[in-house]
Write a sequence for this structure.
């Protein structure tokens, strides 16, 4: 739980209740966000099973990590296209007596949606000192915004 350390020696998992069939196309990805604080020797592992949970394959292993910022993780699932899979998040703290705040997972999804960049730094206009106008490249990502023309500024 946030604000309280996990127990030394724990090996806890959050596992999907039901398998999901991954499409053959387009490729699926597992996306989630987390802040994490692990003690020495501890692992936060994202695992996949394609045999109903009999065996597990590590897709992502975070080891002795301290990152308090919410961070997005994207895990490619294309190697499992067409298969029925289970995903689990496992915190393994059995190797060392050190511990931390733990692993806080949010906004978990399996998606086939394309990675769309709605804007990037180069899409913005920079106003410099004394009102000087510096034009950056502009890209319209959707809609009719000015008939897709970049403004020359004031």
């Amino acid at each position: 739980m946030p604000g309280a350390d996990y127990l030394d020696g724990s090996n806890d998992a959050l596992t999907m209740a039901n398998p999901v069939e991954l499409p053959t196309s387009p490729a699926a990805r597992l996306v989630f966000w987390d802040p994490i604080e692990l003690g020495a020797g501890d692992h936060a592992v994202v695992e996949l099973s394609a045999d109903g949970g009999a065996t597990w394959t590590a897709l992502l292993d975070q080891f002795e990590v301290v990152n308090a910022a919410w961070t997005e993780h994207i895990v490619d699932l294309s190697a499992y296209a067409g298969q029925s899979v289970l995903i689990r998040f496992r915190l393994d703290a059995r190797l060392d007596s050190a511990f931390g705040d733990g692993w806080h997972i949010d906004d978990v999804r399996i998606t086939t949606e394309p990675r769309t960049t709605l804007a990037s730094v180069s899409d913005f206009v920079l106003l410099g000192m004394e009102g000087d106008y510096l034009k950056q490249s502009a890209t319209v990502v959707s809609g009719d915004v000015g008939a897709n023309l970049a403004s020359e500024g004031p």
In short: The chain is about 0% helix and 40% strand. The domain at 11-111 is CATH 2.60.120.260 (Jelly Rolls). The chain has a mean pLDDT of 73.
